């Protein structure tokens, strides 16, 4: 007499077309949100860097202007 062993059947869940579409849409939204976040951070960093550079330029121009005024004043007082 042969011993009968239980056989396990692995059942794969069947996804409906609507479930598949929902999963694809969800993944697309998640990937898009991540990419938008990354691009936003890049743009924010660039704006910050540009603002710093323009601010530095303005400071240099103010210093040059003040130095030019001092030089003119010194020249006129001689």
UniProtKB/TrEMBL annotation:
Top-level taxon: Bacteria
Full protein name: Uncharacterized protein
